[in-house]
Automatic annotation (TrEMBL), chain A:
Keywords: 2Fe-2S, Iron, Iron-sulfur, Metal-binding, Oxidoreductase. InterPro entries: 2Fe-2S-bd, 2Fe-2S-bd_dom_sf, 2Fe-2S_ferredoxin-like_sf, 2Fe-2S_ferredoxin-type, 2Fe2S_fd_BS, Ald_DH_CS_CYS, Aldehyde_Oxdr_Iron-Sulfur, Beta-grasp_dom_sf. This is Xanthine dehydrogenase YagT iron-sulfur-binding subunit. GO terms for molecular function: 2 iron, 2 sulfur cluster binding; metal ion binding; oxidoreductase activity, acting on the aldehyde or oxo group of donors. Pfam families: Fer2, Fer2_2. The keyword rRNA-binding does not apply. CDD domains: fer2 (cd00207). SUPFAM superfamilies: 2Fe-2S ferredoxin-like (SSF54292), CO dehydrogenase ISP C-domain like (SSF47741). Residues 14-90 form the 2Fe-2S ferredoxin-type domain.
UniProtKB/TrEMBL annotation, chain B:
The lineage of its organism: Bacteria, Pseudomonadati, Pseudomonadota, Alphaproteobacteria, Hyphomicrobiales. It comes from Faunimonas pinastri. InterPro entries: CO_DH_flav_C, CO_DH_flav_C_dom_sf, Diverse_Substr_Oxidored, FAD-bd_PCMH, FAD-bd_PCMH-like_sf, FAD-bd_PCMH_sub1, FAD-bd_PCMH_sub2, Mopterin_DH_FAD-bd. Keywords: FAD, Flavoprotein. This is Xanthine dehydrogenase YagS FAD-binding subunit. Pfam families: CO_deh_flav_C (PF03450), FAD_binding_5 (PF00941). GO terms for molecular function: FAD binding; oxidoreductase activity.
TrEMBL record, chain C:
InterPro entries: Ald_Oxase/Xan_DH_a/b, Ald_Oxase/Xan_DH_a/b_sf, Ald_Oxase/xanthine_DH-like, AldOxase/xan_DH_MoCoBD1, AldOxase/xan_DH_MoCoBD2, AldOxase/xan_DH_Mopterin-bd_sf. Residues 27-141 form the Aldehyde oxidase/xanthine dehydrogenase a/b hammerhead domain. Pfam families: Ald_Xan_dh_C (PF01315), MoCoBD_1 (PF02738), MoCoBD_2 (PF20256). GO terms for molecular function: iron ion binding; oxidoreductase activity. This is Xanthine dehydrogenase YagR molybdenum-binding subunit. SUPFAM superfamilies: CO dehydrogenase molybdoprotein N-domain-like, Molybdenum cofactor-binding domain.
Amino acid sequence: MSSQDAQSLSPAAVPIRLTINGTERRLQVEPWTTLLDLLREQEGLTGSKKGCDHGQCGACTVLIDGKRANSCLVLAVVKDGAEITTIEGLGQPGNLHPMQEAFIEHDAFQCGYCTPGQICSAVALVQEGRAHTREEIREYMSGNICRCGAYTNIVDAIEDVLGQSSTLREAAE
Amino acid sequence: MKRFDYVRANDVGEAVAALAASPAARIIAGGTNLVDLMKYDVETPERVIDINRLPLNTIEATESGGLKIGALVSNADLAYDSRIAERYPLLSSALLAGASPQLRNLATTGGNLLQRTRCYYFYDTGTPCNKREPGSGCPAIEGVNRIHAILGTSDQCIATHPSDMCVAMAALDAKVHVIGPGGERTIAFEDFHRLPGDMPEKDTNLQPGDLITAVELPAEDFTAHHSYLKLRDRQSYAFALVSVAAALKIEDGRITQARLALGGVAHKPWRDTEAEAMLKNSTPGVASFSAAAAKVLETARGYGENSFKIDLARRAIVRTLKQAADGTPQSQTDKRIR
Amino acid sequence: MADTATLIGRPSIGQPTRRVDGPLKVSGGARYAGEYFADDLLHGYVVSGSIAKGRILSIDTSAAMAIPGVVEVFTHENRPRTAWFDSKYQDQVAPPGSPFRPLYGDGILYSGQPIALVVAESFEAARDAAALVKATYAPEEHITDLDAVKGQSYVPPKKRSGIAPPPEPRGDAEAAFAKAPVKVHETYRVAVEHHNPMEPFATTVVRDAGGKLTIYDKTQGSQNAQAYVTGVFGLNQSDVTVVNAFVGGAFGIGLRPQHQLFLAVMAAQALERSVRVVLTRDQMFTLSYRPETIQTLSLGSAPGGKLDAIMHHAVAGTSHFEDYQEVVVNWAGLLYGCDNVKLSYELAKIDTYTPSDMRAPGATLGVFALESAMDELAYAAGVDPLQLRLTNYADFDQNEDKKFTSKALISCYEQGAERFGWSKRSAEPRSMRDGHELVGWGMATGVWEAKINKTAARASLTETGHLEVSSATSDIGTGTYTVMALTGADAFGLPIEHVTARLGDSSLPTAPVEGGSWAAASTSSAVVDACDKLKQALFKQAQSMPDSPFGNVDFDGVAFRDGRMMLAADEGSSVKLGEIVRSARQHRMEAEGSAAPDSATQKEYVSYTHSAIFVEVKVDEELGVVRVTRIVNAVAAGKILNPKAARSQILGGVVMAMGAALEEETFADHNLGRFMNHNFAEYHVPVNADVQDIDVIFVEEPDDKTSPIGAKGIGEIGIVGTTAAIANAVYHATGKRIRDLPITIDKILA
């Protein structure tokens, strides 16, 4: 791809290792390349979206070492050695993650552009275990803007998955 | 974004040496503000020093009974640390009032101290700004200044400091640990950030080559009577128009200790020790709270669009002190103001 | 299995249905305009100007060209030749005037105008080089403040196509107002708002070896963009395909081609390479916006609130080069019965880019003013705000003296009020309280036009019995894919999984831009027609099959279900649809259909969607913080094709109204002539924490005249009136009437 050609020309490129959706990747990155641009332009993982490029919308949210983060504000070189999970790694049609299923069932999106970030954020929210009420879900999902205004459906979807996981927990006990 | 050299420091010594070699370099930790500003070409460092490998990500007890927070501890880890949540809930609350969960995972304690203003003009290289380009002028003074400062301004700059964390740290009387070319030293929180004066380009009193290593919280905590109230243009994920950190000790119906700091109103977290002194030994109530608020805002000045902040700050101080006194600190998830 | 059979047989239209594009959207597989690649792809980055008016004296591109990987920097000095005539730049929805031409000359018409395009081998090289392009200017005096020019307002000399000017006055509104015992006369304003879809504007031009272009563009109309490109660049229609399979929100800003489309095509043609140009979020604020509009509303009524005079005057800002127009004041003569009405709409020119349609253009502004004034009139007359609406209910359109095709607004009022509990409201402002918070209940009416536009569709059945329905319409998050698939499934009695919907491609059957709430009704009506024609073709073919069971029946004697054609009278006699196709020795059979407004109906009838919105706010009395705690929006919009997606459309409109009512405002520095809060941190749109309970009701509203399928459209109605209902609730809570949106803390405390 063209950006890789450019890179091979760049004396500034730094070798890094990232595990992206379970696959180890050894990459040459210029220090001014963000993780988001690396994912989208070099890795072709365009599921992570660029909505503002400044940490103001959450569309670029991915999981870095299991924690949600705005990939647009992360220089890729700084995350050498990290594990990255993007929306593509959560699940694909035919084998969707329960949160992806819940988003479809609750119509928790319209245009779909903020959706990968919302879902990555929601998956992290469940793992963090700090949201127990709709109020808390709303606050802990406020880093993901949805201009189509699907918020109430997003909360429904997350509540649904939270309910499933607590049911599972109860069943295991 | 300006092209830069990338240097990865493996220990504090390396970082200090790298900084000493190029004092105009920028340190990158979480990057949430630096990368943001570099993309806007507001920050244009020649060299960026990555300190993420440094062992500065722990929270440790100090001999004097306080806590020492490593500069690389993330805002999320700090807010949810059980010692912080139990002993310094004001700080937890302020942290959780800021940014978003994903930003708090990235942003660090040291970086938060060095957050730069949200002034529209500072961010827009198509306009003049004395902070970004000294001597170019300050269009905010007669321009769009809804979010600007009402205290401690100068005719050069009316920008505000945007941090929530720092407001709580100012109220808690924290200290900043720094290592620089001359060795280690601590800076009282009050002295860390500056007012703009005639050098608005300087946000802090750090010297060239300084590296923040930790923030220390003193032993004295305020677990019973505290509150952080943040007022903004939407319910979450927005910078403060006005925020107030209040911490009190109340014994036998009298205030024996008071801490009061404001965010969103000045070039630095605005702590007012005179107002605190007025509160001390008073009876908690609207009368003493209003008097303290009046004291804080004695020198306040509005610039048009932001003039409402004077009244808003007065009201917010009274309310936050009441929340603190009543032991009903503001929740950051329940948006009803207590 | 019995369940499956009944499921297959059931009608699909009207059932809540998951989006057919859902799996792609939730897994990152849906590709948007800036997400297509080519081996020879170059990246373009726009350089925006910093002055509001004047001339570029010089542009120094040398430092930018020195960045490794930079291929070219285009400015007005080296721009390749493009079309000369204005008409070539005028797209389908352009207002009268001279459309802006990127890099056309040294003139600067507005702050943020594109002055250069840097093209490089990588995104980063283009981005980083763009910062090094340095321009010097000869600034001229500018005016961006509408208040400074509102005295020079004018009636637009040339009307914008499709936008009804205010109707002629009826009765004598001035005289009636002068003697009315109850009066309201106030000025209302709404701040400048920017659309801010989540996806930034982007165009990827993929150029094949023969020079043919496939253009992935963020647009609400692939054929509108295609016509613009062929006109401006002198290309053949057959050499240009525009694709907008997924559009990351638009809300009107994607109706007209934006400058990144021009720049990307220009660069691709000049460099003979594929090129992608993506705007930054900040640059999104250099595009169109909802115009600032100053409105004066005068209402006069009898003591009980019966309206006797309505006067509504609006002055809206527009650019110096185009007269953007929208319907702001006509609603005041439509929504309520009144014999003395005077409506006027004027423009005033400022040095900004041309404003544009933004969700429910005009109505969002005009109905805010009207419904705020109606609330004021209710208090002035001492009647309940809901009762006031009922007292003045309009049974026909007095503006045009025509009947409504249907109007179930009374049901909206009744069902909305019931669900909300309106009858428990205490009339006095500041009379309801919950701790520190004052509680306010407000209501308003919403209205938006309902229509279909001429649209074509194709239905095509494969030899395996799979149905494909297609049209060059767009799905900007509205659910068009799903509605098309549902319509096809319904027509053939197929499960929706056996139907594929295709849209967002200029080579598909002709469709207008996706806007105005007409897409679902128009496209699905066209799909019905295409399916009807295809079914007839299949029937004909089936009759010619050996041993055909259909030899002795006519078309009305067959049914389509479960992938088969069968005798209606004997369902056991059936043939698989795929077999019919195979019998024609073809891989697929197809037919085109269309839908268009019926001019006979239009002579007699008008059609509108309506809504009644009920809002609860809680306002902290000391601190002025407003929380919207409850909204009920009851909508009458004809047949609801997919209640699941339709509900989401209303939710979205309501949330955008919450933004407009309480948060959204683009601040202009009039000294610099520049919008200043051009990012998502300082231009506040609602976040999740802002939004609590929203209850959507669709009332029954049979309508056989608006569209063949019975639908009216629901994209805009959710926002209309909702801003007023919020403002009215704030008044009820606080006793403060705030007539300029957004209602921020400072205005509550003032």
